[in-house]
Design goal:
homodimer, 342 residues, alpha/beta, 434 Repressor (Amino-terminal Domain), Rossmann fold, 12 helices, DNA-binding, Lambda_DNA-bd_dom_sf (chains A, B), transcription (chains A, B)
DNA sequence: CTGTTAGCGCGTTCAG
DNA sequence: CTGAACGCGCTAACAG
């Protein structure tokens, strides 16, 4: 059975569809009585205005698009949670797309969304992305866009990130304090500001400790997980002196654990690992496993708030609205307290 | 700058909009030459057909709705991943909604989606849900719906689940073999088949071992996490003999870890814990922590496949299409192999 | 092969 | 306060 239409509702009430439409939209220019009759029958018949007809007329999709590299990862899952919450408060719908770090896919999605399916976009760019012309289209069309976490380096748009430089610094410092002298860095992508900034923090801490930064100890992450494990494994074999690893994203941290396991290097006795990560199970990590945790849920919420401010007020998002939240170094919880804020 | 419309494209080409529409939809009844001209200009101008206008006319939203209790949880994240992949292959879009186990929210979402925003629905019901009248609307409207994981007990629709009875049995058996004699059960909800079936598996294993099933050792999970921790804590304090815990969902497993920690009971020395869970970090669990892992990604894929079969062939989903996949008992990976398939 | 017409279901004129 | 007419952008039916 097809859903009932405005017209049918109007006929059943002996009213014109215009009046019914007005009543349902709570217009001032309709009598309280008719309003009551309309609403009563609408409720009874489970009437829902057809969303696409309405969108077409109003030129509002009531939908935002969320584009993520992946979701099988606690950071982005928590972010979605925050985004969905804010969207719901604004009576908006959330379309989710995954790029799997594939640039061409990102371009496709953006182009499609720019065609009217979404009123705004939240984007965490694919690590493969190094061209950004597809984003110009969004600017031209005036579609508000907020970047979060994985941001175009040097972008002129609003962004929500964490204190990436500081996070990299804190993580490295933690390893140094634990006695590591040869710390490898697992880089996500040089196109991304998170890649650059976290690495700068790492270099900063290394220099401060009077240690030399060695490009041989940097592994550039790929899209394929097995490949990453192999690369890290190779690093560990060629550089047995490595006693610490800093992973700039969760997936690389997991690859590092795996690689260590494969070559029989114990964590944390032989190698200490710190990674950016939002594992729900962070509290359960083995002794010595430590994470830099981002406030993913809040980041999702804040990014969405900025976006909706632009959508509802019909103003562009300004770079000045950008936010930088604080990351936290989480050491395995044992009998004593867990969170160290240096 | 507003996106260009079909009409404008037609004018620029001195063609009628009908012809242009046909050309873009690769109709047989249009000359190869015109087709070429149209496609060339369309590409140049970045033309995208307005999705809602098209949907309105074709009565197809090209969108599916995915309704989940939560997403900050590896199981549902992985499921979304699988769902999105199949949707993309079908050129469909994915709307994500979270109920946070709130029944009224589930009803709202379903009613709205039934109004034409989605061609089909994938649903994992809220644990609070015990009335299912809102689902009748979907049946009336002929909107294909596939349930996964959290299924309406005794539903007549297609479902994708894991071998919940067997999973509960395996988990409990594992605890028994490890020497546990007083095993508590953390129940998610009696409205859900996963709650019932997993508990049956638990009871089955207990009986087989000649142990008595005690309702005092069953904790009924609530929506609030802190409350769950408190309840489990109370259990542990009132029943110091408890030496094993079986958690029927991930969130309860995490609450159990926390509660044990709070009352100073060590895992696994004092209490062994097994939970249904899809933690990416499962490989990193502490010794003695064991999980029952569901093939979440595959479940998402399979559920979506069933749904799209119905959508594209315009046939209803049949209960006979239901699938039951196999869960896996994953013991902490150490130097030896990890996966035990009994 | 192409153009004309009509209508998907709404919301918004403009009259009365 | 209410109704008739129009159009959002697209596709399907009917002509030619």
């Amino acid at each position: 059975m097809k859903p009932i239409s405005l017209k049918q509702l109007a006929q059943a009430l002996n009213l014109s569809s215009a009046t019914v439409s007005r009543a349902l939209n709570d217009s001032h220019e309709v009598s309280a009585e008719t309003k009551g009759r309309v609403l009563a029958l609408a409720r009874e018949l489970n009437y829902e205005p057809h969303p696409f007809a309405s969108s077409l007329r109003r030129q509002k999709s009531k939908t935002i698009g969320v584009i993520l590299p992946e979701v099988a990862n606690n950071f982005f899952s928590l972010a979605i949670d925050g985004i969905e919450e804010i969207a719901r408060l604004n009576n908006y719908h959330v379309l989710v797309y995954l790029t799997h770090d594939d640039h061409s896919r990102e371009v496709d999605i953006v182009q499609h969304l720019a065609g009217g399916r979404a009123d705004g976009i939240l984007l965490s760019v694919a690590s493969e992305t190094n061209q950004f012309t597809h984003l110009d289209l969004l600017a031209e069309r005036g579609i508000p866009t907020v970047f979060f976490d994985r941001v175009r380096a040097g972008s002129a748009a609003a962004t929500v990130t964490t204190d990436d430089h500081r996070g990299g610094y804190k993580a490295t410092q933690h390893l140094l304090q634990a006695g590591c002298r040869h710390i490898a860095y697992l880089l996500v992508s040089n196109n991304l500001s998170i890649g650059q900034k976290r690495m700068q923090g790492y270099q900063h801490a290394m220099q401060e400790a009077g240690l030399e930064y060695s490009p041989h100890l940097v592994v550039q992450g790929q899209r394929d997980k097995a490949e990453n494990v192999a690369l890290i494994r190779q690093l560990l074999e060629e550089h047995p002196e490595v006693d610490g690893i800093f992973a700039s994203v969760e997936s690389l941290a997991l690859s590092a654990y795996e690689a260590c396991h494969e070559v029989g290097r114990r964590i944390p006795e032989d190698v200490k690992v710190v990674g950016f990560s939002n594992m729900a199970a962070a509290a359960l990590l083995e002794p010595g496993l430590t994470t830099i945790t981002q406030p993913a849920y809040e980041m999702g919420r804040e990014a969405a708030k900025i976006l909706f401010k632009a959508i509802t007020k019909n103003k562009p998002v300004l770079p000045a609205q950008s936010l930088e939240l604080e990351s936290e170094l989480v050491v395995r919880r044992s009998t004593e307290a867990a969170r160290l804020k240096p």
